[in-house]
Amino acid sequence: MPQLAPLGPGDPTQLGPFTLRGRVGEGGQGVVYLGEDESGDRAAIKLLHVKFTGDAMARSRFARELRAAQRVASFCTARVIAADLDGDTPYIASEYIDGPSLRETVETSGPLSGSRLDRLAVGTATALTAIHEAGIVHRDFKPDNVLIAADGPRVVDFGIARIIDSTGTITSRAVGTPAYMAPEQISGDTVGPPTDVFAWGATIAYAATGKAAFGGDSIAAVLNRILNHDIDVSSLPEPLRSVVQACVSKNPTARPTADQILLRLLGRTDSGGQLTAVLTQGAHVASTGEFPAIRPHDPPKAEASTVGAGPAGGPPIAKPRVRGPERRNGRRAVAVVLVTALVAIGGVVAAIRFIPHHDQPVSTPSPSRPASSAPSKDPSGSPSPGKSPTYASIVDKAYATKKLTIGVKGDLPGVGLYTPSKGTFSGFEIDLARFLAEKLGVPPSGITFKKVSRFDRVGALQAHTVDLVVATYAWEDYKNDRVTFAGPYFVAHTDVLLPADSPVTTLADLDGKRLCSWPGSASPALVTDQVPMELVKASDHADCMNKLKAGLLDAIPGDDMILAGFAAREDMRFRLLHAGIGHWSYAVAVPDGDVRACEAIRPLIGQLYDSGRMATLIKRHFGGVGFSPPLDIPAKITCR
User: Distance between CA 619 and CA 625 in Å, rounded?
Assistant: First the structure.
């Protein structure tokens, strides 16, 4: 890594929660500092140059970098953990990657081979897949923007990244580093994900040979080689040889997609619709090297519909697919951007992680360690007798065992209801939990549902009797719980339920009317804060419904989704007032500190909305009462 320079007279000493320890580098757009938070965790913090703080265009570019970073699931990338774009000193703080760049590694130690090359190829292909799945084109993938950390390679620097438009591509002027630019960048043609794939192939060739694939004595010579010459990949082992050769095709449509590269290197031909599980596998291989990712003696069998013959008689290569906008779904602190990259393009680091928001003391989490799906072992290397396997993250457990235990509510009709006579769970949150488990690689047969109440959710996660909780868990009310929240998957509002024929049409019409109230509920007070009403006591939600049907009260308060669930199972017709009081972000809870699980789940929630599946679930479970909430993807809460 670059040597730290001391802070100068004009440098700040504090940015947000970070104390600055020195300068990492400076580019055209900003300065990158090394910072530490109160717990000692380090971050790379990019501060917008003072001369740009009043420049609306510069702030817009800075915000674009942050948006690009936030869209990317952090598989083999660097997480953004904090940002302030509105203050007098706009900054983005990313995970500090303590390791040299790929270029520095090759220049110092020579070309990579064997397992080191395997880990590099799988890790960078994993990162590129996550980037493209988020609808982002990196546009400057090169050895300087790959950092070699102890737990595997990381792709950084989204300074010139672009979000793909509705056509699935972007058209732009030539930007990037000459030796790793694709032909279409030079000619000014359409730039898209295949552009990054070309740069990936050139980068892997450099790592394996120690020489720039399209090197030359001048920029003109480099550009000529890119446009008119093929590279020699004969020294690369299979399947890298044929994969790299396909990636550096002059024709963008002939190149494989990033996920096809990753599947090929993992010895797979299909993701089975579970790309998150594949990304998890790729990250595991990159961090541990445990999986035999590259096996030249045992190439996977190709499927005729998706695989074509490889170049020069090599193993088959997946045919490229066109990515449309429907594919856009999507360790502490901001990644360090190398000084060379900063000087060249003023880039920053990407992907996201935020700072904990505990309002009460908590134990300091242990330093990040490579993810492992291996069982805990004693010093001899054998599994510990009498102990269950332990996993660094529930995504590792899902990948290794194809099983998850999910905590859900069992007493909310339409939302999460257990039927003892059938021994089954049903409802909106049950279907949502099945969707998340499927995307994490767990088949329906591997899902176990367990009833949890609001009083035992935390304990169940801490005791590992459940792996995650989907149970109308409102982040605003329980953000101090010792769990990590992902999402939210739904934003509820306090509303009131009325008989369909009620004359009430506005909150003001409720003045003086009878409102149900039961122990432990805050909803009645939220409504009576808006309009004075007579409170009628009941034992619980079900008792409120009985009293409403009997005409003993006029309205029931509560979260709109829960009210809709109760109303949907009744023969009598009801309706919601759509009062829209307050908001409550229902989130998925995972074990405290499992940030990888949080960041794997968040883009899946985006997929749920983008695909229209959320609208389908709402209609399926609540359509009978006209419940039609906004279906915009909820604003993300922080992974902590």
Answer: 10
* Shared-domain flag, residues 192 and 156: yes
C-alpha 323, offset from chain centre: 19
pTM of the predicted model over 0.85: no
CA distance 623 to 614: 12
**3-class secondary structure, 464:** coil
For 84, the 3-state DSSP assignment is strand
Asked if residue 185 belongs to a domain, the reply is yes
Structural domain including 20 reads 14-98+331-345
- What are 234-293's pLDDT values in tens digits? 888 888 999 999 999 999 999 999 999 999 998 887 766 677 778 888 888 888 776 544
User: For residues 244-258, b (16+ Cβ closer than 10 Å) or e, as one string?
Assistant: bbbbbbeebeebbbb
CA distance to 23, 51, 91, 204, 358, per residue, from 31 (Å):
7, 12, 9, 29, 30
- Of 32, 69, 49, which Cα lies nearest the Cα of 158? 69
Q: Which of 37, 140, 144, 610 is catalytic?
A: 140
Same domain? For 300 and 152 the reply is: yes
140 belongs to the catalytic site: yes
H/E element, 418: strand 416-419
Whether 294 contacts 240, CB under 8 Å? yes
Domain boundary among 345, 375, 403: 345
pLDDT tens track for 170-223: 333 333 467 888 888 888 778 889 999 999 999 999 999 998 888 777 778 888
Q: Are 251 and 231 in contact (CB under 8 A)?
A: no
DSSP state of 267: T
Residues 273, 99: Cα–Cα separation, whole Å: 34
Per the CB < 8 A criterion, the answer to whether 394 and 590 are in contact is yes
d(CA 338, CA 220): 26
Q: What is the CATH number of the domain that holds 447?
A: 3.40.190.10
Which residue numbers in the chain have pLDDT < 70?
1-3, 27-30, 48-75, 85-88, 158-177, 271-273, 290-389, 640
User: Is the separation of the CB atoms in 376 and 59 below 8 Å?
Assistant: no
Residue 551 token pair: 């005409």
Q: Which residue has the tokens 């501060």?
A: 47
Q: What is the DSSP string of 388-417?
A: ----SSHHHHHHHHS-EEEEE-SEETTTEE
Q: 430 near 423, Cβ under 8 Å?
A: no
DSSP of 325-348, one letter per residue?
GGG-----EEPPPPHHHHHHH---
